[in-house]
């Protein structure tokens, strides 16, 4: 084993041990019940909430997908960053405080399907089942997307087989998620968020320094292709809308908004918002600058880069010492693992509460539900590994499909359930189904516009979000208003927000 590989392995090994250690610590600290395992006892502080939400949100997309997009297409990639920033900010303003209050009022709901069922007093279990299906379907794809990033990292940086990267990445995540549950996931996310932030600051700074500064780098990129510096190059109005529309996805991402349910007090949300948005803005700028500098660096060194999504890996290999390189690779793993662990926990919670307990064992004691949740973590991880087995998969493409699915199916439902007291169960179900089906048909259907696939012409989340909103309002109005007891709980939520 050469010196570089040894140094990298030392850093990665230390990182893995820290993550597993946190999982063991959380195992002994948390209560052995479903609220403890799946929601951390609603005890998260603002800093952990913010960085946990940010780290679980960004995944390997931040260090692989976004720099790769900037590398390939230039500054048009800024539109995605702008959309995400606006969406995340509005999520903290509109969703976070209301959801934290309402989930307790709605019979202490600890999962999103729990909240939907309790919010609308759905005794038929229709909302719980529909939302569980959406979560299991899209999150399995989303988890697979994150694992692709792990496989690429091991293949490109450690010269190990892609499949080995999948299994090692999944194995470490499963270990600490299995034992420590939500508390371990949130604590590891906090640490991983700090690692990611450091990487997103140090890598572009070193890269620009190596290239002679920002001006010299910009001139080098202009000489490669002036269009790379044009924020509207090759873009249509629909294209710009599609990129900005990524921000709509925030309102419906279960692994992100569950952090709002777990924060210890609604009074901590403004602090969490300030920390979270600062972290996000710095990280997004760093990711974009990494891809921008990467284009000039590859040209300068005359190297061949087959996959733009590996440009961050290139910098870690050529600009840093082995130990630092290993730390930076750990940042990619941190981004990947933080998202995978959150997704695994959300899916396992849904399988436990909304499938096992609902259909197989309604009287299951708390300890048995926690055991089923842990078994579900393993099962979902294995299925995701199988889906991620193709090394040619694009991280950005897989993430975009799952992001659109959640954003359209749950986004309007979450927003209007928290802001419109006239919404009823039928409207909620219609919005969820219409949003999910629209995205699936938009992406995988045989339809085209001007010879382009629909999802290439306009991002699926846009029609999905719009049609879901229309369905919620139309069906709620046509089928009558909610019951008085539901209105009373909504009023209680509003009163608690004003305290």
Automatic annotation (TrEMBL):
<keyword id="KW-0915">Sodium</keyword>
<keyword id="KW-0472">Membrane</keyword>
<keyword id="KW-0029">Amino-acid transport</keyword>
<feature type="transmembrane region" description="Helical">
    <location>
        <begin position="126"/>
        <end position="145"/>
    </location>
</feature>
<feature type="transmembrane region" description="Helical">
    <location>
        <begin position="194"/>
        <end position="216"/>
    </location>
</feature>
<feature type="transmembrane region" description="Helical">
    <location>
        <begin position="6"/>
        <end position="28"/>
    </location>
</feature>
<feature type="transmembrane region" description="Helical">
    <location>
        <begin position="427"/>
        <end position="445"/>
    </location>
</feature>
<keyword id="KW-0769">Symport</keyword>
<keyword id="KW-0997">Cell inner membrane</keyword>
<feature type="transmembrane region" description="Helical">
    <location>
        <begin position="457"/>
        <end position="481"/>
    </location>
</feature>
<feature type="transmembrane region" description="Helical">
    <location>
        <begin position="371"/>
        <end position="389"/>
    </location>
</feature>
<keyword id="KW-0813">Transport</keyword>
<dbReference type="InterPro" id="IPR050277">
    <property type="entry name" value="Sodium:Solute_Symporter"/>
</dbReference>
<feature type="transmembrane region" description="Helical">
    <location>
        <begin position="401"/>
        <end position="420"/>
    </location>
</feature>
<feature type="transmembrane region" description="Helical">
    <location>
        <begin position="76"/>
        <end position="95"/>
    </location>
</feature>
<keyword id="KW-1133">Transmembrane helix</keyword>
<keyword id="KW-0406">Ion transport</keyword>
<protein>
    <recommendedName>
        <fullName>Sodium/proline symporter</fullName>
    </recommendedName>
</protein>
<keyword id="KW-1003">Cell membrane</keyword>
<dbReference type="InterPro" id="IPR038377">
    <property type="entry name" value="Na/Glc_symporter_sf"/>
</dbReference>
<feature type="transmembrane region" description="Helical">
    <location>
        <begin position="310"/>
        <end position="336"/>
    </location>
</feature>
<dbReference type="Pfam" id="PF00474">
    <property type="entry name" value="SSF"/>
</dbReference>
<keyword id="KW-0812">Transmembrane</keyword>
<dbReference type="InterPro" id="IPR011851">
    <property type="entry name" value="Na/Pro_symporter"/>
</dbReference>
<keyword id="KW-0739">Sodium transport</keyword>
<feature type="transmembrane region" description="Helical">
    <location>
        <begin position="272"/>
        <end position="298"/>
    </location>
</feature>
<comment type="function">
    <text>Catalyzes the sodium-dependent uptake of extracellular L-proline.</text>
</comment>
<feature type="transmembrane region" description="Helical">
    <location>
        <begin position="228"/>
        <end position="251"/>
    </location>
</feature>
<comment type="similarity">
    <text>Belongs to the sodium:solute symporter (SSF) (TC 2.A.21) family.</text>
</comment>
<dbReference type="InterPro" id="IPR001734">
    <property type="entry name" value="Na/solute_symporter"/>
</dbReference>
<feature type="transmembrane region" description="Helical">
    <location>
        <begin position="165"/>
        <end position="187"/>
    </location>
</feature>
